[in-house]
User: Which sequence fits this backbone?
């Protein structure tokens, strides 16, 4: 197989996989609940509410999976566009696919135990995110003009690898929550789990919003809707920070509603970006060029992933007085 | 019926081509020849097109004439340099002087939209001091305009064209943010940047009139690279796709393939209309005001060709300056080859610029300034350049063309000084319309040569610093034309006043690059459009004060701006 065909197949497979996975993550999981509850029932009950912790953990797996799906699709398209010029550009495809598989496994795992392989995989994802950020930073600064608007706009996007880092972090959090399902309160490194996750998610929302802001500024906010992902998520982040700071045992209905709004926004963003693609020369008839050239279709669901994580944290917070 | 823009007028029967929709039409108001319109505008380029739009939007009745065709960019423009010469004004002209100009490509346009249809889209503001270059910098002539006022009109044009420019501009007083962001740099632009950084001067992304994000029905630039032979995607914000559609929506009429041959003057010494050639015959359109916007050759030619017993030296020519002070901008280049592939033809040709020598006054042995930009010559032009300017032919030319993908170059837009000896006059020969053709006389002065010399030395160093090899110099090239009907404060030393109104005939106006007293070291299109916007505002103000004929204002409402894509050519 020639290298070009290999690239096409790889990018195509990445896309297909991420779409399937995103659908799976969002699909309701009612089917096998009976079997799961049987399995749960078989486990020793020593913690106060292991079920709620596991539910939160699975939700976090789902959020991590959504982010990984977004990264898989986005890096497939964008690195394909960059012709996989550097072999390292295959890394996010492999790692995000792995993270996605891990997350799917996590969402269907009812056991209140951390999984060593999942843990490893999530750590790998987080490390990839950090390393990728370094790579992208190097790519931007090595160009003539250095750290300039031109290179921030058109060099490797600095914020993009953060998505896989966040996916890894949320997954890692998920395992910690699961692990402490039977202890008096879900926690990570001695910190209350739900509040920590809320804070991490809030920071993720801010970063992702910053990335959207940079690229929408590149597009001169030519469509008023381009302001949405730079206004709604920061408010969501503030609400999450607030919940993290003083939210024990409260339901936070407004924050939850806001997270659902962001979930919807992330999905609607795909539609807006599809419209953006249509506004390029040749529109969707010239999809093979314009999908690469237009606004990235898989990018907005990152917000959905983060909002799902926020919901998981809020859920845990509601059900665990001191989480 | 076969729709041939070059031979059959398209704007007629109440409709004009919709440039955004293949086969589409937009409604167009039409005026009878015997119906005196408020303004006849001769030319529809940066000056005329802009003015037609603004005046129509202010409620005046406007008919704008263009000798060229009404193109549909989405359908009529090929990725073929030879085919696209149809955009140029290639009618007979005589050139002479010590440095005869090469006319017909980068200094002319014959189409609705004028030469903005094929311009390089470089949209720069004048350095403020240039508006008073005589007083402040000691050369050329002062403009009767204040740079601060112009700064606002520049902003208006930049917004109207959605200029894509850098987030901050390194030179001159602050300017508002460009409406769209700069385009990505190509390798040729990065070479310019590298050279500038090595020599310690500023550079930036060139502010360009091609959009980097969607705008209405115009698609963002696809970096096709055929910008200077006509943009087939409508990313280029030419007059044809910006001002003209607005003008039509506001009720202006565009008459394509209509060559104005003479301006008529009545017994009172006022102009009363224009004689124009369309559909194999001469017609006369009555008008209360005539605006000449034919650029620096056709404008003086029309004024001189309209001589009467009363105005024996041509219209608006009591100062004797019509046709004089023809200025070009020098367009010399330094070329080289890089080891890596450059493919300089990708994207707009001049994505990066340095205006360092426009703003620095030290280290110069000449008056004026120059900008230089990265280049992206198309293959046919490049072969021509190698053959004519580099003197290659046969085997060596073929060998050299193999380096095409590695070629990198820097080219100046240099300020040439006004001289009365460089001028447009009438030759005795006549053209296809039976009109006397222009004789264009041009020579560089010593200052021009010193500026060119300085730029070539500096650009050679810059290109070397960027890593280019086998450098060679293209010594003889010019671009934009200006002057020939300069504006000023004094009827004795200028043709029009600051409002572009002729000193001699109050209802005769000139609004294009001809009115420039000096050219500056930047491409003139933005300044021409800014002047047109200002002129429109001044005309409206004068009309309100009753200084124009008040009854000239049209009473009926403008026609609807809706488009009709279903109508077909009859």
Assistant:
């Amino acid at each position: 197989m020639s290298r070009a065909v290999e690239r096409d197949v790889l990018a195509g497979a990445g896309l297909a996989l991420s779409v399937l996975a995103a659908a799976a993550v969002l699909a309701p999981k009612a089917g096998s609940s009976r079997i799961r509850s049987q399995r749960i029932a078989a486990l020793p009950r020593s913690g106060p509410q292991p079920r709620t912790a596991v539910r939160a953990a699975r939700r976090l797996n789902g959020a991590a999976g959504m982010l990984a799906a977004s990264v898989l699709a986005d890096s497939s398209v964008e690195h394909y566009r960059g012709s996989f010029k550097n072999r390292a550009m295959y890394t996010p495809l492999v790692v995000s696919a792995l993270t996605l598989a891990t997350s799917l496994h996590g969402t269907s795992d009812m056991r209140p135990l951390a999984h060593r392989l999942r843990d490893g995989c999530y750590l790998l994802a987080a490390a990839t995110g950090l390393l990728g950020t370094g790579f992208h930073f190097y790519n931007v600064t090595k160009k003539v003009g250095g750290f300039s608007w031109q290179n921030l706009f058109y060099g490797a996007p600095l914020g993009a690898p953060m998505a896989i880092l966040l996916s890894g972090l949320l997954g890692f959090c998920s395992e910690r929550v699961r692990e402490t399902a039977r202890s008096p309160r879900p926690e990570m490194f001695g910190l209350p789990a739900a509040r920590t996750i809320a804070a991490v998610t809030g920071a993720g929302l801010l970063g992702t919003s910053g990335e959207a802001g940079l690229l929408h500024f590149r597009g001169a906010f030519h469509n008023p809707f381009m302001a949405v992902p730079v206004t709604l998520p920061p408010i969501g982040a503030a609400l999450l920070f607030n919940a993290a700071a003083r939210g024990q045992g409260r339901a936070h209905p407004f924050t939850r509603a806001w997270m659902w709004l962001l979930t919807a926004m992330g999905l609607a963003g795909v539609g807006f970006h599809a419209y953006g693609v249509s506004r390029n020369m040749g529109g969707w008839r010239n999809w093979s060029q314009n999908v690469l050239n237009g606004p990235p279709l898989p990018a907005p669901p990152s917000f959905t992933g983060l909002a799902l994580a926020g919901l998981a944290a809020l859920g845990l917070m509601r059900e665990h007085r001191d989480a | 019926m076969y729709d041939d823009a070059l031979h059959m007028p398209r704007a007629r029967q109440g409709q004009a081509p919709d440039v955004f929709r293949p086969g589409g039409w937009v409604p167009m108001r039409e005026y009878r020849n015997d119906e005196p319109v408020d303004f006849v505008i001769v030319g529809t380029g940066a000056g005329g097109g802009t003015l037609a739009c603004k005046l129509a939007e202010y409620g005046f009745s406007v008919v704008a004439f263009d000798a060229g065709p009404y193109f549909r960019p989405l359908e009529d423009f090929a990725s073929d340099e030879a085919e696209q010469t149809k955009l140029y004004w290639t009618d007979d002209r005589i050139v002479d002087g010590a440095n005869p100009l090469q006319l017909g490509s980068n200094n002319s346009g014959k189409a609705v939209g004028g030469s903005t249809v094929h311009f390089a889209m470089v949209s720069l503001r004048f350095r403020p001091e240039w508006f008073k270059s005589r007083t402040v910098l000691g050369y050329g002539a002062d403009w009767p305009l204040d740079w601060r006022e112009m700064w606002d009109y520049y902003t208006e044009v930049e917004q109207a064209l959605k200029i894509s420019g850098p987030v901050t501009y390194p030179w001159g007083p602050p300017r508002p943010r460009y409406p769209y962001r700069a385009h990505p740099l190509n390798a040729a632009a990065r070479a310019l940047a590298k050279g500038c950084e090595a020599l310690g001067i500023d550079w930036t992304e060139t502010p360009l009139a091609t959009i980097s994000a969607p705008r209405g029905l115009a698609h963002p630039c696809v970096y096709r690279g055929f910008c200077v032979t006509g943009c087939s995607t409508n990313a280029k914000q030419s007059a044809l796709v910006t001002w003209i559609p607005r003008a039509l929506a506001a009720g202006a009429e565009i008459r394509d393939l209509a060559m104005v041959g003479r301006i008529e003057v009545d017994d009172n010494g006022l102009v009363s209309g224009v004689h124009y050639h369309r559909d194999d015959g001469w017609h006369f359109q009555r008008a209360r005001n005539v605006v000449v916007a034919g650029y620096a050759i056709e404008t003086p030619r029309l004024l001189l060709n309209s001589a009467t017993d009363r105005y024996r030296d041509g219209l608006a020519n009591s100062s004797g300056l019509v046709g004089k002070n023809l200025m070009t901008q020098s367009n010399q280049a330094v070329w080289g080859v890089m080891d890596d592939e450059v493919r300089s033809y990708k994207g707009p040709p001049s994505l990066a610029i340095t205006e360092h020598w426009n703003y620095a006054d030290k280290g110069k042995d000449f008056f004026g300034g120059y900008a230089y930009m990265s280049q992206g010559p198309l293959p046919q032009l490049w072969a021509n350049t190698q053959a004519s300017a580099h003197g290659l032919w046969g085997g060596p030319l073929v060998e050299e063309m193999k380096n095409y993908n590695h070629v990198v170059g820097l080219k100046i837009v240099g300020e040439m000084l006004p001289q009365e000896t460089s001028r447009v006059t009438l030759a005795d020969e006549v053209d296809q319309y039976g009109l006397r053709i222009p004789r264009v006389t041009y020579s560089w002065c010593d200052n021009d040569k010193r500026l060119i010399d300085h730029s070539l030395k500096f650009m050679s160093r810059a290109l070397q610093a960027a890593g280019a090899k086998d450098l060679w110099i293209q010594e003889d090239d010019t671009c934009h034309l200006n002057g020939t009907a300069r504006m000023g404060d004094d009827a004795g030393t200028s043709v029009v006043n600051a409002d572009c109104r002729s000193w001699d005939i109050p209802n005769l106006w000139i609004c294009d690059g001809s009115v420039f007293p000096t050219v500056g070291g930047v491409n003139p299109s933005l300044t021409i459009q800014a002047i047109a916007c200002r002129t429109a505002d001044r005309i409206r103000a004068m009309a309100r004060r009753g200084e124009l004929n008040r009854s000239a204002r049209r009473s009926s409402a403008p026609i609807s701006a809706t488009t009709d894509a279903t109508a077909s050519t009859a």
Remarks:
- The two ends of chain A are 53 Å apart (CA to CA).
- The mean pLDDT of chain A is 85.
- Chain A touches chain B through 19 residues (CB under 8 Å).
